[in-house]
Amino acid sequence: MSPSPSPSPSAPAIRLLLCDDHAVVRAGLRALLASTDGIEVVGEAGSGEEALALAARLRPDVVLMDLQLGEGVDGVTATRRLVSGEPPAPRVLVLTMFDTDADITRAIEAGATGYLLKAERPEELFAAIRNAASGRTALSAPVADRVLARMRSPRPGLSERERDILRQLARGLGNRDIARALFISEATVKTHLGRIYGKLGVETRAGAVAVATERRLLP
Predict the structure, then answer these.
(1) Do strands 91-96 and 138-139 pair parallel, antiparallel, or not at all (unpaired)?
(2) How many CB atoms lie within 10 A of CB 141?
(3) Cα separation of 7 and 80, whole Å?
(4) CA 208: distance to chain centroid?
(5) CA 132 from chain center: how many Å?
(6) d(CA 100, CA 108)
(7) pTM for this one?
């Protein structure tokens, strides 16, 4: 990620809203951001619902969004609602510990301007916030590598049988009930599930349903 230029002394500060469900993390970020010029933390949210409410009231330029927010609205859903809300919509910069293909894809498809890992150096975080405020994409180097690798080697599409199994997963059925519904063996269901996980870049049933929903693979 190429660094952005520092703001000029006359430029207005970037208004930033923090969203993370850990108070200690928010406090650390606020203290860290206080050490740089041109970025003003205007609010803190501990949940997706709180982030949406504060964004509507405070009108930040950028929302620094964690993906995992406990119960309620998650980071991906909050991102989608923020960027599709009443103009001027804020830019959303994801800041998370997770760099799986599924998480990256869901966040970007939801409208996130950037995707940053919490292991980044402070200078990279500051540059990413400034890039996001200017509408420029900001990706951690490992994330950019994964995105490029995925573009170069796109995953194969789902077969009709795999789509059938996904639909049953979305209904909350277990392997045995899926096998009965589709007149196949449980072993066959497990084989198809492994292929589905690989194609969607997930490791769990819930992850498969979430990604399939995001990509409109389910009716």
Answers:
(1) unpaired
(2) 11
(3) 28
(4) 15
(5) 15
(6) 12
(7) 0.67
